[in-house]
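Q: Can someone sanity-check these two? First one:
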Amino acid sequence: MSDPIIDLHSDDYFMGEALRQAVRAYEQGEVPVGAVVVREGRIIARASNQVELLKDATAHAEMLALTQAENAVGDWRLTDCTLYVTKEPCPMCAGAVVHTRLARVVFGAGDPKGGAAGGALNLLQFPTLNHQCAITPGVRLEECRGLLRQFFAEQRAAKKNGESSPSL
């Protein structure tokens, strides 16, 4: 059996949907990260960061999208799904990806300080874990990175001017 053909145009499309979720987070004062889960060419889950809104450190876009996807599939195993996320997953989210056994993770902006899909470390392909998944980095990189940079520049400016903003 040959490997499936990966249509990079659909990667671009689905990352655009994740970017829509990131903009939603941005508009709500959250770190602008968005995620969608795709199964058989269809989006089955969408989420944006909701850490501040829910007062929950685990309410990352990826975690919320994975929970929605599990509900949509009716199982905790997401072996035939792909996660599209605008920023490289952190260790918590990467751990959840491994546990749900996603086939693939596609992300936009890398995170060399805290990313767990090859940035600071690579939990998604850690050899002793029970599952490894394919990784496609850098999809719509400039848009994903630009949104994050703009958000954090505004946060720093607000802090400098003494304005209140969510603690990051």
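And here is the second, same format, sequence then tokens:
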Amino acid sequence: MSDTPVKQQNTAAYHAQAVASFAVALAAVALGVANLDVDAWVRAFLGVAVLYLTTSAFTLAKVVRDRQEAGQIVSRVDQARLEKLLAEHDPFQKL
């Protein structure tokens, strides 16, 4: 079984770009909601809706990531079991 760690696939620049993109998008929506020519309660409703959508998106991303990581762990355990069976198997052993 290999003890090599899982490689990080995202660079620091990619991470920074994703964070900056999220910040700009959230700020643009917040600015747009704040500048709407509607009553305060409508702006408040839209603000709460944006916050709810944002937290739901984070939750969904976490659930997808957790399922993917769980699948990788199961795959690694299965691979380790297979490697152990193959290492212990003697094809010349008499039955």
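A (reply): Looked at the second one. The chain has two helices and no strands. The two ends are 28 Å apart (CA to CA).
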